[in-house]
Design a protein that fits this description.
Length: 58
């Protein structure tokens, strides 16, 4: 069975549950929508700075 990439799965989850809390620590919390925005910002930063793709898991 082939699974979709994690970023695809997460984007779909963020669309479906965007305003629900994804993470919390103490009194801080972040929604799925906010987490996706932050992860996209990080991905764009890495791409713009020409950081090389690495494989963590095979």
């Amino acid at each position: 069975m082939k699974y979709p990439p994690i970023h695809t799965w997460f984007s779909e989850t963020a669309k479906q549950f965007g305003e629900q809390i994804a993470l919390f620590c103490g009194e801080q919390q972040i929604t799925y929508k906010q987490l996706e925005e932050k992860s996209n910002n990080l991905a764009n930063f890495l791409i713009l700075n020409d950081l090389k793709k690495i494989t963590l898991f095979t």
